[in-house]
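Hey Z.,

So I finally got round to the zinc ion thing we talked about over coffee. Here's the setup:
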Amino acid sequence: MAQPSDNGSPKPPSSKQIETSTAFAPADIRAMHLALEQARLAEQAGEVPVGAVILDAQGRLLSVGHNLVISHNDPTAHAEIVALRAATRSIGNYRLPGATLFVTLEPCAMCVGA
Ligand SMILES: [Zn+2]
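And the result:
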């Protein structure tokens, strides 16, 4: 939060303040690191490098996934869909109440709809 200056207008944050503050919880940061790791796996496999992670409502890891479109000959095997399928299988429910999906790229229209 910017501190008011002597003339009452907010001062812009210094670069040091920007570097040390974050709006993300540690669990969110860990999830994004896992998603980036998944994206690297996709890249190593010759896929488009996208990774996804799903945490349940309590922040526990439900699943990970990365693009498998080429290796599975499946145009729907985007990272998000792969992770969603793994998560729903793991809990035996087609719904994921309270779950959070982390993905390394803005989801496409298909994945947003899933
Ligand atoms: Zn997609």
